[in-house]
Design brief:
The complex is a heterodimer. Chain A is of the alpha+beta class. Chain A is built from ten helices and 18 strands. Chain A folds into three domains: about 110 residues, OB fold (Dihydrolipoamide Acetyltransferase, E2P) (Beta Barrel), CATH 2.40.50.100; about 80 residues, E3-binding domain (Dihydrolipoamide Transferase, Irregular), CATH 4.10.320; about 220 residues, Chloramphenicol Acetyltransferase. The relative contact order of chain A is 0.08. About 5% of the residues of chain A have low confidence. Chain B has twelve helices and 14 strands. By secondary structure, chain B is an alpha/beta fold. The chains are: A alpha+beta, B alpha/beta. Chain B: Pfam families: Transket_pyr, Transketolase_C.
C-alpha cells in the first residue's frame, strides 16, 4: 500500500509550507530517513525526510507552491503502484480531528520530528496548577521533576523562589545578602528586577520616610489637564533670541516716576514687553491666531494673557486690547490682574479671551525656557532674566543688559519663518523702543 | 480494657444484642453445635437455643429469603453465609427483595436484617471460597456495606448494623478473625458512614479496606524509616462512604493510594478514586491517584500464586513511592 507523504507541521504557528525544491523525482528509490524535499516555513528552511522505504511514486506540487500542513504532497510505495492523480483533500482543514492528529503522529515518530513541538501542553498536577495560578507563575516556565517532566507542587514553589527575579537581580541580591522572597517585584508578573533589589537594599540600610501624598484636584488638576492637552495635541517649536535691553531700561527709568504718580503702580519690564509684543502682533496676525477645530481664527483683538503663579497652580488672566493701551493703562491693568489672581478674585471674563500669552520668569535666574502654549492660542512668549553680558557692538566688546525671549509656536498653525519674523521684529522693537511711537 | 479476637468481638456483639432484644435471631449453615464455618457462633446455641440460633439447609437463597420475610414481619434476623462467594446464590433475595422493599412500599415495610459473611483470600481456600465481591452489593441502592478491619470496629459496626432498619451486608475477613485488639466489654455502636484514620501522616494518604488496612499500616511503618509520612484512612463502610474524611486527608497530603483486596477492575477503589477526582481535593492532588487491587484472575489455589494475585505490603510501599516519584 502506498503511503502518503505529508506537509509536516513543524511549529505551533505553521499553517503552510513553501516547497523550495524536490530532492527526489518520481520513480526514484527512497530509503527511510532520506531527504525527499525541502520546504520553507515561517521560521526555517528544512529538508523533510522520508518515513517510508520504497519508490517515490507521485509529487503533486511544484516548487514555490504554498502547501497547507497535513496536505498529502506525494506518495511512497512499491514500483508501479497506483496512486490518485489528484492529491486527496484535507479531511478537515480548520481543525484536524483527534484521530487525524494521532494518525499523523504515527506517520512521524516524535524522535524524528526535526523541530521540538511547541504545542505540547504542560504536564502538571492539579496541585501544581493551583499553586501556579495563585502565584501568577507560567507553568511552562517551570521545570518538572516528575516522570515525563511532570510539574509538581514543589517544583512550582521552587520556581516561585528562583524564577521571580531576573538573573541580574538574583546576582545583586546574593551579593548584598538580600532575601529575594522579601522583595516586591515591579516587573511583569511581579518579577524582581535590579532596581527592586537595590531599592530594597537601600531601604534596609537607610530609614525611609513615607512621602506626603496630595490628591490631584482643583486648580492643580485643571493645570495638569490643560498642560497635558497642550503638549499632547500641539506640536511645539521654540525659538529663542537674545535682546539688548539697554534702551528698554532707559525707557523704564524715565517713565517709572511718571506712571507711578499717575496710577500708583510701578512700571515693570513686563508692561513694556506687553506693549512691544502687542504692537508687533498687530503686524503678525498669524501669531495672534487661535486654532479651533479645523479653522485658524485670525483674531482682530490683541488680548495678552499673563501667566501668573498662584498657590497650587498657574492662571492666565487676560489684558484685553493691549495693543491699544498706553504703558500707564497697561501697568494698572497688569498689576490689578496680578493682585486679583493671587487673591483668587478674578472674574471668568478676566481669565479668558487672551489671544497670545506671556510667561515671565525674569525674576528668577532663568535665561531661556520652552513655554507651553495656552490653547487655543498659537504662540506663547517666555521671558528670561536681564543679565549683563559682554557683547560685540561695532567691533568692540561692551557690557550690555541682555535678555532671552523664548517663543513657542504651534507648528500646525504657523511655520518657522513667520514665527521667526515675528520674534525678529519684536527683538528690533525692544532694542529700539522708540519705534513704538511710530 | 481487655483484648479479644475479631471473631469474639463479632460473637459478643450478637450475644449482647440477643440478650437484650428477643427479635434478634441468627440463621445459617452449621452455626449451631458446630459453631459455623469459622467458629464465630460457637457456644451461642447453648445460651440461646435452636429457636434463635437456627441451622438451615444448604440454600443461601432460602436462608436469605427467610431472613427477608421474617424481617418484614418485624424480626431482626442475622444471616450467616459460610463464604461470601455464595452471596451469588442469595443475590435475588438481597438485590431484588431486601434492597427494594422499603422503597417500593413507600417506607411502610422495612427489612432490618444483617447478612454476615466472611470474604477474602489468604487461607488457601481457592477460587470459589476466596473472593471479595463487595463491589457487587455496593452497586445496589438499598443495601449498606460494611467491612470492619479490627475487632473493635467489628463489634461497634455490627451493633450499628443490627440497629439499622435497612439490610446490611457485613463483610468479615477470614484472615482477620484471629487478630486481636482492645474491645470494650459494654455494648457500643460505631455509626455506619464514619471512616477512621488508622494512622496520621502528611505525605501520602492510603485509603484501605479490611485486611488491606493492616498491610497499609505495615507499609507505613516501613516508609516511615525512609522519612515518608503516610496517613492510613479506613472507610470502614463502603456504603455509606465517608467522603469528607477521605477528601480532607487527600487535600492535606496531595497524594493518594487506594488499596483493596478485590479485583481492581470494577472494584470499589475506582469509585473512591473517582470521588476524590470529582471533589475539592482535586486541586490539591500532586500526583496521579494510584489504585491497588487484585489481578483480574480467579484466586489461585497455589499459596504463592494466591499471594501474588492480591496486593501485598511491598506493592503498597512501591505505589506510595510512585506517587512521590521515588519509585
Amino acid at each position: 500500500m502506498a503511503k502518503e507523504v505529508f506537509m509536516p507541521k513543524l511549529s505551533s504557528t505553521m499553517e503552510v509550507g513553501t516547497l523550495l525544491q524536490w530532492l527526489k523525482e518520481e520513480g526514484d528509490p527512497v530509503e527511510i530517513g532520506e531527504p525527499l524535499f525541502e520546504i520553507m516555513t515561517d521560521k526555517i528552511n528544512i529538508e523533510v525526510e522520508s518515513y517510508e522505504e520504497g519508490v517515490f511514486l507521485k509529487k503533486y506540487y511544484q516548487v514555490d507552491d504554498e502547501i497547507p500542513v497535513n496536505a498529502v504532497i506525494g506518495y511512497v510505495g512499491e514500483e508501479n503502484e497506483e496512486v490518485p492523480n489528484e492529491p486527496p483533500e484535507l479531511a478537515d482543514e480548520e481543525e484536524p480531528s483527534e484521530a487525524g492528529e494521532s494518525a499523523k503522529e504515527d506517520e512521524q515518530p516524535a524522535a524524528e520530528q526535526p523541530v521540538e513541538s511547541a504545542t505540547d501542553k504542560v504536564r502538571a498536577t492539579p496541585a501544581a496548577r493551583r499553586v501556579a495560578w495563585e502565584n501568577n507563575i507560567e507553568l511552562s516556565s517551570v521545570s518538572g521533576s516528575g516522570p515525563k517532566s511532570r510539574v509538581h507542587e514543589q517544583d512550582v514553589i521552587k520556581a516561585i523562589d528562583t524564577n521571580r527575579a531576573t538573573p541580574l537581580a538574583e546576582k545583586i541580591a546574593a551579593d548584598k545578602g538580600v532575601d529575594l522572597s522579601q522583595i516586591q517585584g515591579s516587573g511583569a508578573r511581579g518579577k524582581v528586577e535590579k532596581a527592586d533589589v537595590t531599592g530594597y537594599a537601600a531601604a534596609q540600610t537607610e530609614p525611609r520616610e513615607e512621602p506626603e501624598r496630595v490628591k490631584l484636584k482643583g486648580l492643580r488638576k485643571a493645570v495638569a489637564d490643560k498642560m497635558l492637552e497642550s503638549t499632547q495635541s500641539i506640536p511645539h517649536v521654540t525659538l529663542t533670541s537674545e535682546i539688548d535691553m539697554s534702551q528698554v531700561i532707559d525707557v523704564r527709568k524715565s517713565l517709572l516716576p511718571v506712571i507711578e504718580k499717575q496710577t500708583g503702580y510701578r512700571l515693570s519690564y513686563t508692561e513694556i514687553i506687553i506693549k512691544a509684543t502687542a504692537h508687533v502682533l498687530g503686524n503678525h496676525p498669524k501669531v495672534n491666531a487661535s486654532l479651533v477645530g479645523d479653522e485658524i481664527v485670525m483674531n482682530k483683538d490683541v488680548n495678552i494673557g499673563l501667566a501668573v503663579a498662584v498657590e497650587n497652580g498657574l492662571i492666565v488672566p487676560s489684558v484685553p486690547n493691549a495693543d491699544k493701551k498706553g504703558l500707564a493703562e497697561l501697568t494698572e491693568a497688569s498689576k490689578t490682574l496680578g493682585l486679583k489672581a493671587r487673591d483668587g478674585k478674578l472674574s471668568p471674563d478676566e481669565m479668558s479671551g487672551s489671544t497670545f500669552s506671556i510667561s515671565n520668569l525674569g525674576m528668577y535666574a532663568v535665561d531661556g525656557f520652552t513655554p507651553i502654549i495656552n490653547p487655543p492660542e498659537t504662540a506663547i512668549l517666555g521671558v528670561g532674566r536681564i543679565v549683563e553680558k559682554p557683547v560685540i557692538v561695532d567691533g568692540s566688546v561692551e557690557v550690555r543688559p541682555m535678555m532671552v525671549l523664548s517663543l513657542s509656536f504651534d507648528h500646525r498653525a504657523i511655520d518657522g519663518a513667520p514665527a521667526a519674523a515675528f520674534l525678529t521684529e519684536l527683538k528690533d522693537r525692544l532694542e529700539n523702543p522708540y519705534g513704538l511711537l511710530v | 480494657m481487655r483484648e479479644i479476637t475479631y471473631s469474639e468481638a463479632v460473637r459478643e456483639a450478637m450475644e449482647q444484642e440477643m440478650r437484650k432484644n428477643d427479635d434478634v435471631f441468627i440463621l445459617g449453615e452449621d452455626i449451631g453445635v458446630y459453631g459455623g464455618a469459622f467458629g464465630v457462633t460457637r457456644g451461642m446455641i447453648e445460651e440461646f437455643g435452636p429457636e434463635r440460633v437456627r441451622n438451615t439447609p444448604i440454600s443461601e437463597s432460602g436462608i436469605s429469603g427467610a431472613a427477608v420475610g421474617s424481617a418484614l414481619t418485624g424480626m431482626r434476623p442475622i444471616v450467616e453465609l459460610q463464604f461470601s462467594d455464595f452471596i451469588t446464590i442469595a443475590m435475588d433475595q438481597m438485590v431484588n427483595q431486601a434492597a427494594k422493599m422499603r422503597y417500593m412500599y413507600g417506607g411502610k415495610a422495612t427489612v432490618p436484617m444483617v447478612l454476615r459473611t466472611p470474604s477474602g483470600s489468604g487461607t488457601g481456600a481457592a477460587a470459589q471460597h476466596s473472593q471479595s465481591l463487595e463491589a457487587w452489593v455496593a452497586h445496589v441502592p438499598g443495601l449498606k456495606v460494611v467491612q470492619p478491619s479490627t475487632a473493635y470496629d467489628a463489634k461497634g459496626l455490627l451493633k450499628a448494623a443490627m440497629d439499622d432498619d435497612n439490610p446490611v451486608v457485613f463483610y468479615e475477613h477470614k484472615v482477620l478473625y484471629k487478630t486481636k485488639s482492645d474491645v470494650p466489654e459494654d455494648q457500643y455502636s460505631i455509626p455506619l458512614g464514619e471512616a477512621d484514620i488508622k494512622r496520621e501522616g502528611t505525605d501520602v494518604t492510603i485509603v484501605a479496606t479490611a485486611v488491606m488496612v493492616h498491610r497499609a499500616l505495615e507499609a507505613a511503618e516501613e516508609l516511615e524509616k525512609e522519612g515518608i509520612s503516610v496517613e492510613v484512612v479506613d472507610p470502614r463502610t463502603i456504603v455509606p462512604l465517608d467522603e469528607e474524611t477521605i477528601v480532607q486527608s487527600v487535600s492535606k497530603t496531595g497524594r493518594v493510594v487506594v488499596v483493596h483486596e478485590a479485583v481492581k477492575r470494577g472494584g470499589v477503589g475506582g469509585e473512591i478514586a473517582s470521588m476524590i477526582a470529582e471533589s475539592d481535593a482535586f486541586d490539591y492532588l500532586d500526583a496521579p491517584i494510584q489504585r491497588l487491587g487484585a489481578l483480574p484472575v480467579p484466586v489461585p489455589y497455589n499459596p504463592d500464586l494466591e499471594k501474588a494475585s492480591v496486593p501485598q505490603v511491598p506493592d503498597i510501599v512501591q505505589s506510595v513511592k510512585k506517587t512521590l516519584n521515588k519509585a
